[in-house]
Specification:
Helix 5 crosses helix 6. This protein is 26% helix and 26% strand. By secondary structure, the chain is an alpha/beta fold. It has a single domain, classed as Vaccinia Virus protein VP39 (Rossmann fold), CATH 3.40.50.150. It has an eight-stranded mixed sheet, with helices on both faces. A four-stranded antiparallel sheet has the order 1-2-3-4, with helices on one face. The two termini are 30 Å apart. The protein contains nine helices and 14 strands. GO terms for molecular function: spermidine synthase activity.
């Protein structure tokens, strides 16, 4: 049972509070910033729209009876998306990487998460773990990592961004290396009205993957607001034909509570921008496979 309250974590505080809009559901705030929605009785329900869009990608790529699905989560927080994966594919084996050791412990002890081997939580820096994993060992990599743009700012409204070393062509190449043929790299990208950061990330993905899809609500894609964009990349078409193909994925996105649309021309969307050249950090301990052992947090993500 989830208990509301304020809890000390490695980077400051985490607060669990009732969701004001939905009975029996809770919100997790990390240092004042809304991080996860926690629905203890309905793990199949995702309150954040970007998670529903990412879920639609996976649901149209992998059949519900897929025997083996190995998922790497770069960014753990409340592990809401990992709980959805376990509900959808009970035989899945997942590794969630979370920088904050205190937050990882809070999630494991308070949120009724699936146990190992269904879900392991590793405390570490996402880029180092990604760089250290063996080739072709995951069907899915899901990146959902944000940190204050100003590491010295503790203000909840301080802009949050994905660290540069996780956004460039080097990170995309490592994700492609870790995935099996046909595996899927899904990214939650934060974007401003000019969408420049999103376009650069898409450009980076196109250097490592043959197939890239981009999706968000129409207002976001028209540059009318700041928000979330989901990008997905693979060596194969993102939506399996036996599951309805791209048309079925597009319909599912349009029918969401916050409708999203697929970008029709991803090459044009990238606009010729060069990907971020920042190299991915290398594994510091020679790790070749994610484990559930905990270590001291690394640099801020």
């Amino acid at each position: 049972m989830i208990t509301p309250g304020v809890f000390a974590i490695s980077s400051g505080t985490a607060e669990i509070l009732p969701d004001p809009w939905t009975d029996g559901v809770y919100l997790l705030k990390v240092n004042g910033v809304e991080s996860s929605q926690l629905n203890p009785d309905r793990p199949e329900t995702l309150g954040f729209e970007y998670m529903r869009w990412a879920a639609a990608v996976l649901a149209h790529r992998f059949a519900s009876d897929a025997e083996r699905l190995r998922v790497l989560h770069l960014g753990g927080a409340g592990c809401t998306f990992a709980r959805w994966v376990t509900h959808t594919w009970p035989q899945a084996h997942q590794l969630a990487v979370e920088l904050d050791a205190g937050l990882a412990e809070l999630a494991r002890t308070h949120f009724d998460l699936p146990r190992s081997p269904q879900l392991k939580i590793r405390v570490g820096e996402a880029g180092q773990v990604l760089a250290g994993l063996r080739e072709a060992t995951r069907e899915v990599v899901f990146r959902d990592v944000f940190a204050p743009a100003d590491p010295l700012s503790l203000a909840p409204d301080s802009p949050h961004v994905t660290p540069a070393h996780l956004t460039g062509a080097d990170a995309a190449a490592h994700a492609a290396r870790v995935l099996v043929p046909g595996g899927v790299y899904v990214l939650n990208i934060g974007g401003g009205p000019d969408l420049a950061s999103v376009r650069r990330e898409v450009a980076a993905l196109r250097t490592a993957f043959a197939h890239v899809e981009v999706m968000a609500d129409p207002a976001m894609l028209k540059g009318r607001r700041r928000g979330n964009v989901i990008a997905a990349a693979s060596s194969a078409p993102l939506a399996a034909e036996e599951l309805g193909g791209r048309a079925a994925l597009a319909r599912a996105l349009r029918s969401d509570a916050l409708p999203a649309q697929l970008v029709d021309d991803v090459a044009r969307f990238a606009g010729g921008l060069a990907p971020d050249p920042t190299p991915l950090v290398q594994a510091s301990d020679g790790t070749s496979e994610g484990a559930s052992t905990q270590a001291s947090p690394g640099p801020a993500q």
